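Data deposition worksheet. Section B asks for the primary sequence of the deposited chain exactly as it was used as input, without tags or linkers unless they were present during the calculation. Section C holds the resulting structure in token form. Section D is free text for depositor observations; keep each observation to a single sentence. Incomplete worksheets are returned to the depositor.
Section A, Depositor: J.P.
Section B:
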Amino acid sequence: MEPTLLAPHVDSHPDKCGGKPCVAGTRVRVWDVAHHIERLGETPDEVIQAFPRLSLADVYGAMAYYWDHRDEIEERMRRDHEEALRFQREAGPGPLEQRRAELTRAVGEADV
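Section C:
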């Protein structure tokens, strides 16, 4: 199945990044580009440093798509984040977190 071109420089494929809009031909989500620019305050040139496969046209194309679909992209990312947090709560602490808790308890007991 071929990716669906959503806009210049933006495509979507059900088997890539959960079908989220990505910079065409990459796995860089539109959200990733927007996050770097809107939340981290980076310039398009700095985004290219973070994602060297992108061109300036890719960055601007992703941002144009983001602004045209901002509410739906933000809502989907919010839902995905909530789902990840739910999975994390259900799974409980991983091995690293368990070991960190053990070490914290051991240090606390040594101080007593």
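Section D:
The radius of gyration is 19 Å.
The chain has a mean pLDDT of 91.
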